[in-house]
Write a structure and sequence with these properties.
Elements (H helix, E strand, L loop, with lengths): L10 H28 L1 H8 L5 H60 L6 H14 L4 H15 L1 H5 L3 H84 L4 E6 L4 E4 L1 H7 L9 H9 L3 E9 L2 E13 L5 E10 L1 H54 L4 H26 L9 H16 L2 E7 L1 H5 L3 H22 L3 E8 L3 E8 L13 H12 L3 E6 L5 E8 L1
């Protein structure tokens, strides 16, 4: 019978596959790392990538964790192979023991030349070996050969020396086969132990790298957190300083109406608890979720303070209102300066109007009344010297004095509104226009709308309307050479409209510069907050439109 020597499945086969896999894996990693780190363009891409250092460290950590996981899998597979190897090692030792036991039984059975009394021991040993080596074809064939020889006819009549020699040879083969398996298992276990040591070292190094990397990440994160906190604190101090030194009042209130932030200016005006603050607009802002602008007046230390206030809601990232904020700008100084500027402008305009009126009076006295009085004096002097023509000269002197008295009366009427304190505005206007008809022989038309309401206007407005009409009538008399004049005064719901139109020579508004009369009219209208517009064309008269809001 041929001896079949074979290696059963076990540690050697698994170890060889693992070593090949690990070798290929390490080789691929080495090649890939070499390709990556040798290529300068890849290095440049990594350095110029948009990944932050945290993302790069996270990527390295994932790679290390993947390596640890792979090493753990390899160690687990190697441990399972260890267990199989130790199991097969115990089986080989057991087979060797059973084989030695069979040799002892056969040594005892050889002189007796009978297997009847040894049958149980032989069956037990052969059955144990067969159950252990059921996957080993060579050992199974050897056991079957022994069983067949024992069950043959020769076993009943006795075994020959050749049969005993064959049995002992089969037993030696079984023992030698198991001895070889035993040595191979020991060699595989020794090799696997060496590999395990290297894997453990590699795992330990990887864990150390992971711990170092985690520590470095924590250090950098802590450092970045401290820097961010410091920067945030600095920014907060800068912002607080800017807000405190701002002239505006700033506050923030939570949903319960509690002040969670106020600047120094706000505390100075409204106190720490904001007891003087009107909270109704804040509630409106919370309900409407819209900004709100208003003007607020406050009495502080018996002085009026004016604020321009804007309130607005503060929204979180989900669009929900979590607080309201307000910014108040103190307009007191600006309003006071504006009022002072208006008062100065009004004073200048008043002085200018008075100066213009004095100039008009001086010119009227010099050009008209003074000339008439001088002529009368000259006539009286002539009458004293020439007694023959005394009566004629006295008559001329009297006419000049009467004319001077008439002109003086006209001048006084132009300076003081005749009866405006006791008489209505409409009557004063009609009397003014009646004198215009009598003196200049003009066709004058007057239209008055809502006379009762016009006569109940404020005294300042009534005086301004009369003076405007008086100024424009004087302009028409002096410059227009008109024969027709239309005056239209209306009291409307929201305004008062005055229109004065003539058919005189007119003028070009782009060339003509306003005189004293029109300048006075513009000042009066501007003082009342109204508008003054002049429309004129050379040869087609002039139209003056006045609009004064109610």
């Amino acid at each position: 019978m041929k001896k079949h020597i074979s290696r059963s499945r076990g540690m050697n086969t698994g170890s060889s596959g693992f070593l090949k896999t690990a070798s290929h894996w390490l080789q691929s990693i080495r090649t890939r790392a070499k390709d990556i780190f040798i290529r300068e363009d890849v290095k440049e891409k990594i350095n110029n990538s948009k990944l932050s250092w945290e993302e790069r460290l996270l990527l390295m950590g994932l790679i290390i964790v993947a390596g640890i996981t792979l090493l753990g899998i390899k160690l687990y597979e190697n441990n399972r192979t260890y267990q199989q190897a130790y199991t097969q090692l115990d089986q080989s030792r057991l087979v060797m023991m059973e084989t030695e036991q069979l040799r002892v039984v056969f040594k005892e059975m050889e002189p007796a030349q009978s297997i009847t009394s040894f049958q149980p021991a032989l069956a037990k040993s052969l059955s144990a070996i067969s159950s252990i080596k059921k996957h080993s074809l060579v050992q199974e064939n050897r056991i079957k050969s022994i069983q067949q020889m024992l069950q043959s006819q020769q076993a009943l009549t006795g075994l020959s020396q050749a049969d005993w020699k064959t049995i002992y040879s089969l037993l030696d083969g079984m023992k030698a086969e198991e001895q070889r398996n035993l040595e191979m298992r020991k060699a595989d276990i020794t090799l696997g132990y060496s590999i395990d040591q290297r894997l453990y070292i590699l795992l330990l190094v990887t864990l150390v790298l992971l711990v170092v990397l985690a520590g470095y990440v924590l250090y950098k994160n802590q450092l970045a957190t401290l820097q961010a906190k410091q920067q945030l604190e600095n920014n907060k101090l800068i912002l607080q300083s800017i807000i405190d030194n701002s002239s505006s009042l700033v506050y923030v209130k939570d949903m319960l109406g509690r002040f969670i932030f106020t600047n120094k200016r706000f505390t100075e005006f409204y106190g720490k608890t904001g007891e003087h603050l009107n909270e109704t607009p804040d509630e409106t802002v919370l309900e409407s979720r819209k900004s709100m602008e208003s003007q607020e007046d406050l009495i502080i230390n018996e002085q009026a303070v004016h604020f321009y206030a804007i309130r607005f809601p503060l929204l979180d990232k989900f669009g929900q209102v979590y607080a309201t904020a307000g910014i108040f700008t103190n307009l007191t100084d600006m309003i006071r300066k504006q009022q002072e500027s208006k008062e100065k402008e009004l004073l200048r305009n008043t002085l200018a109007v008075q100066e213009n009126e004095r100039l008009e009076i001086g010119m009227e006295l010099h050009d008209n009344i003074t000339q008439l009085l001088a002529s009368a004096k000259m006539m009286l002097d002539t009458a004293i010297r020439q007694t023959k023509t005394k009566d004629e000269h006295l008559e001329k002197a009297r006419d000049d004095v009467f004319t001077a008295i008439h002109e003086t009366r006209k001048l006084s009427h132009s300076l003081v509104v005749p009866g405006l304190e006791t008489e209505s505005l409409t009557d004063a206007i009609m009397r003014l226009l009646d004198r215009l008809k009598a003196d200049n022989r003009m066709l004058v038309q007057l239209k008055l709308v809502s006379k009762k309401k016009l006569n109940t206007l404020d005294a300042s407005i009534r005086l301004a309307l009369y003076r405007i009409l008086q100024e424009q009538v004087n302009n028409i008399v002096k410059h227009a050479e008109a024969t027709q004049v239309l005056v239209d005064l209306k009291y409307l719901t929201d305004s008062i409209q005055l229109t004065i139109q003539d058919n005189g020579v007119g003028f070009d508004p782009e060339v003509f510069s306003p005189g004293i009369g029109l300048s006075n009219i513009n000042r009066r209208v501007s003082h009342l907050g109204g508008e003054c517009r002049v429309h004129s064309v050379p040869g087609q008269g002039c139209q003056l439109n006045i609009l004064i809001p109610q």
